Amino acid sequence: MTETSVRVESSEALSAVRLAAAIAVLAYASLLDLRTRKVGNRYWISLSMLGIGMLALQTHADDMPLEYLAVLLPIVLILADVFIDSKLPEKTARALAVAEYASAILILIFLSLEYGSDEYFQHFIAVPAMMLLVVLLYMLDALRGGADAKALIALAILFPFYPYIGSFPMLRPEVSGSEVFMPFTFAVLITAAIVVAVMPIWFLAKNVGDAGLRFPQALLGYRMDTEKARGKHVWLMERMVNGRHLLYSRPKADEDLARELSLLEEAGHRRVWVTPKVPFIVPLLLGLVVCATLGNPLLLLFPL
Q: Taking the model in full, what pTM does it have?
């Protein structure tokens, strides 16, 4: 057996461990998300720690310089802000978070200048870069759930490389280095977003025939009796404000559902527009399976 074949086998074995762990955790987290819409940090911390260990193991298995593990510095700095609840005063905690992210970015720039010419290390650099992108998406409210963002951060650490096992995934880029600019976790996120994007079609089909059909609400949710809406995992798309009945398409994340429903009932509205709190962990699980078997779906549109 040649040295190359040994490395391929060890790489596939590491990919298999990564996939098994990710699918198991995401599957269980999906059940929790469907039932309660709450998934504890311990699942994502465990996946992140496994990812860090696998990163070190991969470096050793591929006989790469130990200096490459310096990429763990920005990774740990980002994890510290994401998972550690600061007991410091708000201003101090905010300043500390800024310092952590600034340090992570500066280290990332230094490592890129020092080792960035090596395509192998570029995959390592893509890990904290992807983590920073997820944090930014969360801050911009593009990712609404904290557990969703933490799941993606854990996956970014766990998969610095695409998990090649035998003939899977079936779609593979032809251009060397393209996977660095389109990391596996990014492909999973895009696939999950595609799954969510088809939901308006289901909502519209569900709303056909409803006498109170309204747009764009009919593409974002459905009508529900106020009594039934209590205790459900939904956001309202209408409310009473200073005696006025308002419809809107972007749900209020900080709403008091019970109070708003009571105000609507007092004004005579017993059937209201709601949008379900989509458990995004489920689409992430589907995205992970699709990307691990089929490959990055973007390659169908933009062959690389």
A: 0.86
